[in-house]
Q: What sequence folds into this?
């Protein structure tokens, strides 16, 4: 039988208080560490500096201010199809708005002539002529092929204001846009390699011709290729 004398209450309090304090402060400490880690990579991303920090997948998007209004895009794919076609990293970057670690992407130091396309839908996004080395560790471009090919959205995650870039055709997350690029635009499109695919110059030219020629486009479809 429990005795509610002063000694019993004192001993109960001695055992209960440390456990209560631990349960209260431990989650706060973990959250603080995760927020700092996510903030560091976002800040490096914004300042054009390298970082080996992991991407910010560990925190719910709502806590990062990453909530985005639902929008219907011209091209859509089922989640099943996307998970089959994309690697886990490509899916995380384009569909969950992730960020790859600096200097780890396939196209960070890529210098071949050609066109960079959306890895999800194949839309033309950047020309190799506009690619430059920003020192950030992510592929950087000072211009896009067509103004309407990329949609810009305000991003207030990590307590800072940035401009998110997404593919205007399918809504895939690409990266962010900054105003510290070279002339003539002064822009720096800081893009994740995992959100891009690359078409060498000759291939890109033939693809453009096929798009302009209905007969060629029909031939392409007969080869079993999925239209973007």
A:
């Amino acid at each position: 039988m429990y005795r509610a004398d002063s000694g019993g209450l004192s001993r109960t309090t001695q055992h209960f208080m440390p456990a209560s304090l631990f349960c209260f402060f431990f989650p706060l400490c973990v959250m603080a560490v995760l927020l700092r880690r996510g903030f560091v990579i976002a800040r490096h991303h914004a300042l054009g500096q390298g970082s080996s920090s992991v991407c910010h997948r560990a925190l719910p998007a709502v806590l990062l201010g990453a909530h985005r209004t639902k929008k219907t895009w011209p091209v859509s794919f089922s989640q099943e199809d996307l998970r089959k076609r994309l690697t886990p990293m490509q899916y995380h970057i384009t569909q969950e708005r992730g960020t790859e670690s600096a200097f780890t992407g396939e196209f960070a130091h890529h210098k071949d002539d050609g066109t960079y396309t959306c890895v999800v839908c194949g839309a033309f996004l950047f020309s190799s002529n506009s690619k430059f080395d920003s020192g950030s560790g992510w592929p950087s471009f000072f211009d896009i092929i067509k103004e309407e090919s990329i949609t810009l959205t305000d991003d207030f995650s990590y307590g800072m204001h940035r401009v998110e870039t997404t593919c205007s055709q399918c809504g895939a997350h690409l990266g962010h846009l900054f105003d510290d690029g070279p002339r003539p635009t002064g822009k720096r499109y800081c893009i994740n390699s995992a959100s891009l695919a690359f078409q060498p110059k000759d291939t890109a030219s033939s693809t453009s011709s096929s798009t302009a020629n209905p007969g060629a486009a029909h031939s392409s479809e007969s080869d079993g290729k999925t239209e973007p």
Summary: The chain has one domain: 56-222. The radius of gyration is 24 Å. The chain has a mean pLDDT of 76. The longest helix spans residues 6-47.
